């Protein structure tokens, strides 16, 4: 886990506004943009594999595998792959789609991500691309059932007034407090929860939290706590993206409420459960549910934070 790094020189964002957005971050100014939702990418320092061509082959094998899953995998919104050819140059990957997506939407997003993640160099030891509908990541170390919270990104839509922010943040915190334990419970092979509440009659608050379903309940919960800490407050909408989970909120219905309602209902309010039996093994087979996707809004403002490991 050694990696060179001064905070920003190893960061690459895969869209044209990246420089602008990074500047927004560095200068700590507020970024508002009406651009399309864009992918956010984190690629770490270049990995020097013992056999670079083999490593790149393995990366391609993993990406091919993730884009060639069957319908039930895309409906489950999660799948893993590994290429162990030439052990020191092994590659592991996984994708996570938002819980409400249809298999077709999930597959389309993953296919897109598999191209996006290859922009630039293939030989990165840890690479992640986030869209608002899906996330794709690969690593030279095993990542399945692994809690990964150190690499993250976030975006937000616009600032609300300081006066509004006081009550808004309170409501957001209260919502997250219930949402996080709910999301940690496995539901139809997924670990997610949504909530719809409102600040005022005309100001709804939609929130969604989701983990990769290979995490145990405590690890999911821990990941979401970390995501909640990094979630921008006092915004009209925002999203916090980690490699193992994410949280998003907005004042409009950004997920498909009908699709979510069709998922089986969660068990009664969970107290922190100390262990939800998910073996520590990569061989997991999440199951179905989901529906067509939803329009996505107007977003952008992307930021990364960095810690070197
Ligand atoms: C590297 O891997 C390729 C297969 O991708 C193989 O043909 C080549 O012999 C390997 N090189 C070394 C030095 O092991
Ligand atoms: C889809 O693939 C998974 C493994 O990824 C397998 O367990 C499942 O049986 C397959 N389902 C169908 C319908 O082929
Ligand atoms: C694929 O990515 C491009 C930008 O990289 C984006 O404009 C497009 O909407 C994406 N398509 C899907 C299906 O996510
Ligand atoms: C949580 O994740 C860590 C790091 O991946 C792992 O070592 C640990 O076993 C997990 N804990 C539980 C309770 O699953
Ligand atoms: C909401 O939670 C954040 C992060 O835990 C905390 O910093 C903030 O003070 C809380 N805000 C309110 C209004 O409770
Ligand atoms: C949504 O969260 C609020 C707390 O802000 C809670 O009171 C309410 O019961 C939740 N609604 C649903 C449908 O879970
Ligand atoms: C969490 O789940 C319980 C049980 O389904 C539900 O009553 C509660 O409203 C949920 N909370 C949130 C914030 O969604
Ligand atoms: C969400 O907030 C934006 C900006 O304040 C506002 O223009 C829009 O009408 C709001 N949407 C809803 C559904 O309240
Ligand atoms: C939302 O889900 C419902 C039920 O699965 C589906 O019929 C509808 O087409 C979806 N809406 C959108 C906008 O994708
Ligand atoms: C900006 C950022 O999140 N950088 C991270 C990219 O990923 C590497 C490896 O996981 C991290 O060390 C960086 O902090």
Automatic annotation (TrEMBL):
It holds the Pfam family Stress-antifung. Residues 263-290 are annotated as: Disordered. Residues 37-143, 148-254 form the Gnk2-homologous domain. Keywords: Repeat, Signal. InterPro entries: GNK2 (IPR002902), GNK2_sf (IPR038408). Residues 1-35 form the signal peptide. It comes from the Eukaryota. The keyword Repeat applies. Gene3D superfamilies: Gnk2 domain, C-X8-C-X2-C motif. PANTHER family: CYSTEINE-RICH RECEPTOR-LIKE PROTEIN KINASE 9-RELATED (PTHR32099:SF42), CYSTEINE-RICH REPEAT SECRETORY PROTEIN (PTHR32099). This is Cysteine-rich receptor-like protein kinase 9. It comes from Punica granatum. The gene is LOC116204615.
